[in-house]
Amino acid sequence: MSIQARILLVDDESAIIENLASSLERSGFEVKTATNGEEALANIKIEAPELIGSYVLMPKMDGCELLRLRRRDDNWIPVILLTQVGEAFKRVMLFRKALITY
Fold first, then answer.
1. Alpha helices, DSSP H only, in the chain?
2. What pTM was estimated for this model as a whole?
3. Rounded Cα gap, residues 83 and 53, in angstroms
4. Most C-beta atoms within 10 A of its C-beta, which of 7, 9, 21, 83?
């Protein structure tokens, strides 16, 4: 019996989640999904994923806030932030926002 790595995908667009989840499951990963950061936080407590892939711009709680809250709580699950922001300086500002702790 092999143990599958658990991945949490977070995005508010169902088509993106369905396509990514399907591809990752075919590759042997166990995939859970959430539609925003608040839902992701609840899922993290239950499922304990080993990797989080989160879109940055979402309603309720965006990917930057999700990452910031995880780090503030000393939770170092690897997080991949996904964005369509094209300009380099805008991406840098988003990532700086994600890493500022209160």
1. 14-26, 37-47, 63-72, 88-99
2. 0.83
3. 11
4. 9
pLDDT in tens, 61-75: 988 899 889 988 888
According to DSSP, residue 27 is labeled T
The count of C-alpha atoms lying within 13 angstroms of the C-alpha of 80, restricted to the half-sphere facing its C-beta, is 10
How deeply is 51 buried, as exposed, middle or buried, from its count of CB atoms within 10 A (0-12, 13-18, 19+)? Answer: middle
Q: Delimit the domains of the chain by residue range.
A: 6-99
Condensed to tens digits (0 to 9), the pLDDT of residues 67-101 reads 889 988 888 999 998 887 667 666 666 666 666 65
For 6-99, which CATH class? alpha beta
Q: In whole angstroms, what is the distance from residue 26 CA to residue 86 CA?
A: 30
